Amino acid sequence: MQSATKGTPHSTVQTMQTMQTMQTVDVAIGVIHFGPHYLLGFRHAKQHQGNCYEFIGGKVEPHETPRQALAREMAEEIGLVIQQDNNTRVNRLGVLQHHYVSVSQHAANAGHKQAATTQQSTSICLHVYRVTLSEAQYQHLSTLTQGCEQQPLKWVMQSELVNNRYVLPEANVTILEWLTLADIITVTYELTATVITTCFAQTSLTETAKAKQKSDLDKTQDRLQNHTENNRQNNRQNNRQKVKINNEQDENNPYEVRQNIADWLEFQRLYLPHRACVYVRLKTLALRHEVQAIMQLIEHRPDLSLIISAAAAVALSQGLLMAQDDGLIRKRSTCHPLNSGKPNPLPHQIIAQHLTQANLDMLDTLHTMDTQDAQGLLSLPWHPTLPITLSCHDESSIQKANKLAKVRINSKQPPVIALFLSPVMPTISHPDATPLGWHHFNKLANLSHIPVIALGGLTPDSLITARQHGADKIAGIRQFYKLTSE
Residue 113 above 70 pLDDT? Predict the structure, then answer.
């Protein structure tokens, strides 16, 4: 608050009096859908951020939990009853916080000739839930054009929704990014021939073809086994030393690396499901060869949607690795010079970049996730226009993930759209890792402000169980490949 200059009568000096108030509002939102069909309401022009579409929901009353408020709002606005004993499935998506500032000018006080300005700061905390309808519920609601309070309703396709065909309030935009990922995600194998041998044996090849395939695979088994053993040894060292060793191995054995990638690509080409969402995990490869494998995978399987490492995304955008033609990939003449400030456009199949828990710990060590240092995030090694997924294994890493997600929203950067929480169950790929179990998984998932992907020891049939325990999506390796080639 400013006061009149000392010694000057109030009657002769007009001052500005500023009053600041803060209001926090909790809101429960339901992302209601049946398959790819999503329900939107329409905000009237007179409402705050009006004349646009919105997800159904409303304020949480003082005596309510967000989950209770959701149930009440669904009943009041569209007549939908969501109880534990009916077919509606409700699971938590995440929590979002947005701040709005409004300024109002008041007339000067007649006695003091002071003008007053009120600055109203409102913090909106959105508690977002996925509401999955039964077929009978969808058949009923799909006939409605107005809600119980006469607000317009509209069913839209998910593809149109996430591609911004419908204008939503600013606070809802991040939710659309959350919905871009598929419900089921396949995580790729590392470069090892053991799983290739097993899966090829399960196909309907003729005996002659099986014999030939076994002979071919036997030739690669020893070669890849040595590569895998070296990887196990590297994993015992820190990340910086591991990258150094992998690069040295790759440079000393270029033919071996080329053959390993060729074998890996053939397996992915044959056994990744059609139009799958895939997390390409190739930690054992040097970055240059990781990028080459990604680009060849896109060439062989353009139907896929890919999550790749943040390091690979940066390398692709800089054109650093694409300009090196060693027979694995073609040169790209459109690459912008390094440090030009203009990243190369990525293939549309790449939809997100991934940070491991080690990456997350590094960011926290560098103190770059403080809300006062949001600008510092712009210089970190990730792609500037890609959303982020994260790996977490404990409460500490989830808290760091929440902090990063909040900073990215506040600094208007592409959001964190999912968190892989693992391992749920024992896994072949990580036999030494202690599984969380569904009970502990549920406790950790409820701490996350980001949609959770359950990973580890699951099958594609685990989605409903995962959603009952706090996850929104599932991911896996062995059980998530298709067993027969097309």
Answer: no
